[in-house]
Amino acid sequence: MRIAVQANELQEQEAQNLLRLTQHALDDLNDFSGHHLRLQLAPRGGGGEIEQDDRSALTIRLQPGESTSAALDPSSPVLDVTYGPNTIPSATSSSSSLATYVAGQLRKTFAEEQAIISYLLSTSSIPSEQQPQGLTPEVAESLAKRTTRSVKYSPTYHLTFSLFASGPLPVSWDIETAIDEYMKPVLDVLSPIHNFTIDTQLQLYAAPGAQSQILNKEDLSSFINAAEWPLSPSIGGAPTVNFIVFVGNQTIGLSSQSPDGSDSISATSQSWLIPQWGSVYLLPMPNDAAHVSAATLEPPLLTFTSHLLSLLGTPQSGSLPLRLSTLARVRSADLLLQASSTLGSLARLSLALPSISIPGSVADGVTVAMAHLRLACDTLGGAESLSHARVAEAEAERAFFEKSMVGQLYFPDEHKIAVYMPLLGPIGVPLVMGLLNEVRAWRKRRREAAEKAAEKKAS
């Protein structure tokens, strides 16, 4: 991964020396070769400005200040680092506190991404001696829970926003305005990774599974009445993520144990996330409210946006632009491993069943998948790697589940013999009986000929 360093306040020689020392410190800290950061000094533009490089995963912007500090820019993948006086290393220095500080900040910034990549490799089918080491059980368990909660990767997701009410009111809501204002900006920045289709619906007289005002943790699993709530199905084959706003007087009680040993309600909540399915928000409103305004929908939509990022497997640390770029790289690595595993399974299948016929479409799909795997590996860490990995995974899946070849998997040679034996029986029995009769007749003729020859010799 390329890290651009903007140091327009330093001389060229000073910047190069600081870059070299920081790279050494970063290499000493990194114990996982599968996730390597390579520092590169950004070229200077006219007027002392630094040209932006879209191929960089992160840009370090060095600025002089009173003390050494670092902060991530909330609107772009930029790490602002200020350095104090007399912290720039000299040309003869073999180490630098500033270089060590910058290396530590980089490792901290990408620690979660490195852990996710390590977890993906540790759960893949690659040989154990090639897998990364050092992933603690606590981190592995946390990443396993996050993986279980996330929806399966798809280029397109269908988002369904539903308003459910337990009575005849409300009868309308400004959901389109609320989505455009509160959720659309995040969907736009997610567009290089996923496409989204959206539909909305309003359903009245939807009685929840739990009738109490304060819902316990045990009530959440039965709150959604799938039999009576006509949730929209997936459109176009894309996975559906459901977001439900339920108008009612329920709240979620977060219980805690009091000193006397009894459970008590310590706090309340209005929403919860359902793994691999969506999110529910309980919206309290007056009983006579006939319309839900966009301003009223702001808390649910902001909550849904946060839950959507969680369902997509977005990392939890760092600024939003950096989290999204990390998501693209993690998805690329995940798709690469899936495509490689699928091709490996197809190769083992062809070796295990040498009599199986491989259609030309399967060979073409494997060729395309291998080509895009190579391109994805060559561009790994960049934005174009995800598109190549997506094509490779789709072609590998299509080749493995080829209809004409899948049907042959259930008819190996043993099954063919079992199928054709009842047909061969009626034909084979007369042939065998005829052959036995011919053998008996031949032996009889031979015996008679031998007897005649003996009588002639005796006479």
Describe this structure in words.
The chain has twelve helices and 15 strands. With 459 residues, the protein is an alpha/beta fold. The protein folds into four domains: 2-109, 2-Layer Sandwich (Chitobiase, domain 2); 152-311; 320-410, no CATH class; 413-459. It has a five-stranded mixed β-sheet with strand order 2-1-3-5-4, covered by helices on one side. Strands 8-6-10-14-13 form a five-stranded mixed β-sheet, with helices on one face. The chain has a three-stranded mixed β-sheet with strand order 9-11-12. α3 (111-122) packs parallel to α8 (320-352) and α8 (320-352) packs antiparallel against α9 (360-378). The protein is flat. The model is unreliable at 46-50 and 256-266 (pLDDT under 50).
Low-confidence stretches: 46-50, 256-266
The helix-strand sequence is: EHEEEEHHHEEHEEHEEEEEEHHHHHH
Number of helices: 12
Largest sheet: 5 strands, mixed
* DSSP strand count: 15
Keywords for this structure?
single chain; Chitobiase, domain 2; 46% helix; 12 helices; alpha/beta; 4 domains; 5-stranded mixed β-sheet; 459 residues
